[in-house]
Amino acid sequence: MRFTFAAMNTWYYISVWLHIIGVSFWLGSMLFLPLALLPAIKNNPDRANLMMETGIKFRFYGYITMALLLITGIANIFLRGIKVSLDFFLESSYGNLVIVKIILFLSILAIGFWHDVHAKKRLLSEVHNRRFKMVARWSGRLMLLISLAMAFIGVILSRGG
Ligand code: HEM
Questions:
Q1: Atom 18 of ligand 1 has which residue's CA nearest to it?
Q2: With 90 as the cut, is the pLDDT of residue 75 above it?
Q3: What is the 151 CA–ligand 1 centroid distance (Å)?
Q4: What is the domain count for the chain?
Q5: Under 8 Å CB-to-CB from 74, ≥6 apart: which residues?
Q6: Calpha distance 161→159 (Å, rounded)
Q7: How far is the centre of ligand 1, averaged over its atoms, from the C-alpha of 154 (Å)?
Q8: Chain centroid to CA 121: how far?
Q9: Sign of the C-alpha dihedral, residues 150, 153, 157, 161?
Q10: What would the pLDDT profile of 37-64 be if each residue is shown by its tens digit?
């Protein structure tokens, strides 16, 4: 079942634009860290501190970006003139895709929380530090894969779902 759409309005364009800016920062950082920063500081004696400082800075802007993506993501739906209802979510392909996107979004937040819990414990012992390194490696990879999937779903949504 496809829903008709109201004329596109300026706020809708601004919302999608902000959404794409947020996506660019998020995906750009997710790719920059493993492809540019990590290889560049591989042999730097201060590598651990540089990574931790970078991680703390990114985490601050990362959470702001996640909030922006959630707010503009929901605004995109309403500003596009979609009559949101339970029916819409359960019966339309657009609605189904939005549900998938929200589940993936919540999983990114959960992985981020998992990463932060282990980051706090890393100084307790060498075992905790080794575990944190493993968690940091896998949480980064998982978040990148999930974010790329969300971008693909977003492209489909933008074209009507
Ligand atoms: C990491 C998180 C996210 C990423 C990487 C992402 C990525 C994208 C991309 C690439 C587009 C296509 C833009 C275009 O082709 O014009 C898009 C559109 C969209 N996204 Fe997201 N998004 C994210 C989070 C969310 C969330 C949490 C929601 C919903 C609550 C959402 C809802 C939408 C909607 C409704 C559109 C369609 C906009 C339109 O009408 O053109 N997104 N997203």
A1: 154
A2: yes
A3: 6
A4: 1
A5: none
A6: 6
A7: 4
A8: 24
A9: negative
A10: 999 999 999 988 898 889 888 999 999 9
Evaluate if residue 140 carries a pLDDT over 80: yes
Atom 27, ligand 1: residue with shortest CA distance = 70
Per-residue pLDDT for 153 more than 80?
yes
Residue 61: which domain range?
A: 5-158
From the CB of 20, is ligand 1 less than 6 Å away? yes
Report helix, strand or coil for 94: helix
Choice from 97, 101, 107, 152 to test ligand 1 binding pocket (greatest atom count within 8 A of CB):
101
What pTM did the predictor assign? 0.87
**Integer angstrom CA distances of residue 129 from 11, 89, 133, 145:** 47, 43, 6, 25
pLDDT higher than threshold 50 for residue 1: no
- Please, which pLDDT band fits residue 141 given cuts at 50, 70 and 90? very high
Instruction: Find out whether the beta carbon of 101 lies less than 6 Å from any atom of ligand 1.
Output: yes
| 140 Cα–ligand 1 center, Å | 20
